[in-house]
Amino acid sequence: MTTESDVLSIIMGGGRGTRLYPLTKERCKPAVPLAGKYRLVDIPISNCLNSGINRIFLLTQFNTASLHRHIQNTYRFDTFSGGMVEILSAEQTEKGDNWYQGTADAVRQNLHHFADHKHELVLILAGDQLYRMDFRQIIRQHIETGAHVTVAALPLPREKVEGLGLMRVNDDLSIADFAEKPKDPAVIDQLVLSERVQSRLKYASSGEYCLASMGIYVFNRRALIEALNNDMTDFGKEVIPSLLGRAKIFAYIFEGYWEDIGTVRAFFEANLHLTDVVPPFNFFTPDAPIYTHARYLPASKINRCTFDHAIIGDGSIITEAQIKRSVIGIRSMIREGCRLENVVMMGADVYEDERNFRANAESGVPNIGIGQNSVVRNAIIDKGARIGSNVVLDPANKPKDYEGGGLYIRDGVLIVPKNAIIPDNTVF
Q: Is the pLDDT of residue 101 over 70?
């Protein structure tokens, strides 16, 4: 019987992350801060560890320095556990000097690294999704069905499947057809779940449902090697469809919360939803914690403030501020008279001291954080940003996508980029 000790996990670090720009201007997607204190990469890694899988490879190639630091500072295993989180960046070899051309190509280029480790199964994950899954369940089904490949699938109402890879399954959940991001309604009609399969869903309401690929795959070791013995570059677009009729491919139905953090709007809303009284994703689950870097910061200090649905990261100092439906990251400094609404503030990597304050005053540069009497709405404030006093930042009545004055609007969300300087009295 295959066990968790026979499984290697591979996490895809993603491409340039253009849809998350400028959050990915100086970091790769998995390193983007999340929920006040975490990084996106902490989600798939924690799911692996909570599932008993501790041999993890992370494939990256763009802006990896921040991710390297986070992994090295966070995931340290004792000598006897055999666990590791190893980063494999694209590299030049005698066989080629190309960067990863896609998800499948990234795995293909590193097959020789995986061969050095005992394994029977390979679990392939995305590095930019928010969800909690016990991978032991998909592995158990994979073994019981005798599958060569198992694809995790999310049941969604027919009207919500735009932009996702869809599959048609037989009653035993074997995959009969697969279409990558179909737009033709006639094609989607062919992929609607049968009544028998839909009746097995726990949370489906009335109406038509489809199964959408989550970008999570379990491969038998040999099946993966054979599937990549070609020039195909992407799993969803090419490899999985090419295996239909040639390999035993099954769907594993997952009915929990899942969010693809692929765009600025998705990232923004996923963070703000965490402030709900009962959030769709719960970081407070004791038996399946989300791990991150232990920074040993002091508790946050709150002075005469008003909060309405907020998350406050460690080591923050907030004074006489009004904060509504916002996520405040570690080491955030928010000064007197500030008002924040629908804001994701990532905080800072360092504290400033008196020497910094004097130097800032002499040069006219605001201190890290938000100055007095400033108002920020519907915005993401990246790490280390310096927003002066009496500043107003609000994307209302602005173009949905905009760039100018050191600020960005993406998907209708205002972004103050990392280490940006916004002078006193700026109104945007």
A: yes
**Could you tell me if 305 and 252 lie in one domain?**
no
**Structural domains counted in the chain:** 2
Q: Residue 135 in contact with residue 48, Cβ under 8 Å? A: yes
Confidence of residue 84 (pLDDT cuts 50, 70, 90): very high
- Give the model's pLDDT for residue 262: 87
289 found inside a domain: no
- Examine residue 40 and state whether it is found in any structural domain, yes or no: yes
Digit-coded pLDDT (tens) for 361-387: 999 999 999 999 999 999 999 999 999
Spatial neighbors of 298 by CB under 8 A, at least 6 apart, are 314, 315
Q: How far apart are CA 272 and CA 116, in angstroms?
A: 42
Has residue 37 been placed in a domain? Answer: yes
Domain match, 230 and 137 both: yes
CATH, residue 374: 2.160.10.10
Which of 157, 153, 185 minimizes the C-alpha distance to 168? 153
Coil, strand or helix at 410? strand
**Do 103 and 168 fall within a single domain?**
yes
Whether 290 is in a domain gets the answer no
- Alpha carbons within 13 A on the beta-carbon side of 145: 25
Q: Are residues 251 and 369 in the same domain?
A: no
User: Residue 123's beta-bridge partner residues?
Assistant: 9, 218
Q: Do 143 and 225 reside in the same domain of the chain?
A: yes
> How far is Cα 166 from Cα 229, in angstroms, rounded to an integer?
24
Give yes or no for a contact between 125 and 42, defined as CB atoms under 8 angstroms apart.
no
What pLDDT, in 10s, does the model give residues 151-168? Answer: 999 999 999 998 899 999
Residue-range definition of the domain harbouring residue 203:
4-273
Question: Looking at the structure, do residues 257 and 367 belong to the same domain, yes or no?
Answer: no
HSE at residue 346, side-chain half, CA atoms within 13 A, is 26
pTM of the model as a whole: 0.94
How many other CB atoms sit within 10 Å of the CB of residue 135? 23
